[in-house]
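As a warm-up, study this chain.
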Amino acid sequence: MEDRKTRKVYTSAQAFVKIASFCAYQERTQQEVRSKLYEYGIKTDEVEVIISKLIQENFLNEERFAKAFAGGKFRVKKWGRNRIIRELEMRDLSPYCIKSALKEIPEGDYIETIHQIINKKSTEILSKNLYQKNYKIAQYLISRGFESELVWEILKVQSTEY
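Now compare it with the structure written out below.
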């Protein structure tokens, strides 16, 4: 016996209504919407028509998605620019959208976030050796997507403070 769910197949009109509410709930990329429409059983040519209609009616805007994504991941998850860029590229966003999204991160806030993470990590790392401690902090920040040159520059200045 097969336990697969039988998928409901939607007409183009039904799929548009359903996908419009999908886009209204949260910002989406064209790639996400395209995948969802294929799940609904919509054919390729109809998918492109629906996507263009969503764009015209402003349900779907990849630049808006990129800005919301970058701002949210930076503020909430404390991701660096490199990580945000990689994630946006994985979602097939254009270089223009990515560049526009990075403008959502104020430089002052970015530097301040690095300082906050350094302060937090410096209390967690028990190593007495300053070089080991700085190396571990730098590795952590770089793994979160912060630029290595910037991390080391800030660490050199800040390591004299703790």
